[in-house]
Amino acid sequence: MSAILTTDIPGAKKAFSGKVRDIFEVDKEHFLIVSTDRISAFDHVFPNGIEGKGIILNQISNLWFSNLTFIKNHIVETDVSNFPEPFRKHPEQLRDRSVIVRRAERIDFECVARGYIIGSGWKDYQQTGEVCGIKLPEGLQMAQELPEPVFTPATKATDGHDMNISAAEMGEKLGKEKTDQLAELTLKIYDFAKNKMQNAGILLADTKLEFGILNGEIILIDEALTPDSSRFWDSSTYKIGTSPVSYDKQFIRDYLDTTDWDKNSPPPPLPDEIIQKTLDKYKEIFEKIQNIL
Ligand SMILES: Nc1ncnc2c1ncn2[C@@H]1O[C@H](COP(=O)(O)OP(=O)(O)OP(=O)(O)O)[C@@H](O)[C@H]1O
Ligand SMILES: [Mg+2]
Asked: Atom 27 of ligand 1 has which residue's CA nearest to it?
């Protein structure tokens, strides 16, 4: 076995590829989404992957999708032996890492909820005292918990970097009613997951969700509460003012900050040790989530 970096299903048409997922057409209403072992950070995909990462991401998302019963999601089928041909013939590429989903009209905003101040939110706060137009208390320290979780949307850039925007700006483009609905749903999902994760000794610092419209209704699409889309912190070592021990992509970002890669040119391969440690962290958080859901 080795990392699955790209998929090829003879007889099936690839609709498009994201940084991590390959999307195939099933029929007019359905896609098949494969989580590959590709790894992206700072919006770049690395030349080497992490063997088994896609399986972990897919399983974590599926667990959350089936537990978030208050919001409809895109999942139709998770078992490769029930997939239609030609997909069923290719379990070696698809097993445990792919799902058949309802195609939705994607809402082109990343819906982010933050309960703690870190990452791009921390950077914005240091410069302006605000995150996505929300004024925060003065004197917050890195990784500090916010008085209450906030909705901090970002644009979904087709190329280049996503940009944090205010809910008001999102409302101008998408409509206020839909934006309010998305803010409420995002915070509700964050709150649900944060409470669950507490039972596993994990602080859910923030999470990014994607939604789509299907038959006029908002549904949850893409991935849910994975270490690629969320920050999971170890609550036993958490300390305000320091960068927390995390079970997510932060480990790779921190490593990259120690290299001389400029985050704009094609990235160098990640060293084996970083790959292995990241995989260990992903496995650990997967186990914790399995134990609580
Ligand atoms: N049910 C769905 N209907 C339509 N599009 C979907 C659905 N679920 C996921 N997608 C889209 O499929 C892609 C998944 O690929 P991946 O997560 O690798 O993308 P990405 O690199 O994060 O890029 P992007 O910025 O386009 O999301 C995303 O563009 C996502 O919006
Ligand atoms: Mg994505």
From this structure: 18
Residue 186 CA to ligand 1 centre (angstroms)? 17
Instruction: Give the number of the atom of ligand 1 that is nearest the alpha carbon of residue 74.
Output: 1
Global model pTM greater than 0.70: yes
Whether 222 lines ligand 1, by a CB cut-off of 6 Å, is yes
- Write down the pLDDT at residue 34: 98
Helical pair 176-198 and 272-292, crossing angle rounded to 10 deg: 90
CATH number of this structure's domain 14-103: 3.30.200.20
Return the ∠ at Cα 136 (arms to 132 and 141), rounded to 5°. 110
Q: Is the CB of 21 under 6 A from ligand 1?
A: yes
Mean pLDDT score of the chain, rounded to an integer? 96
Distance 101 CA to ligand 1 centre (A): 12
Q: What is the pLDDT of residue 162?
A: 84
DSSP alpha helix (H) spans, 105-240: 119-128, 167-174, 176-198
Fold of 106-260: D-amino Acid Aminotransferase; Chain A, domain 1 (3.30.470)
Q: Say which residue the tokens 């914790």 belong to.
A: 288
Per-residue pLDDT tens digits for 71-119 = 999 999 999 999 999 999 999 999 999 999 999 999 999 999 999 999 9
Distance of CA 66 to the CA centre of its chain: 17
Element (H, E) at 273: helix 272-292
List the chain domain ranges: 14-103, 106-260
CB-based contacts of 192, cutoff 8 Å, min separation 6: 68, 70
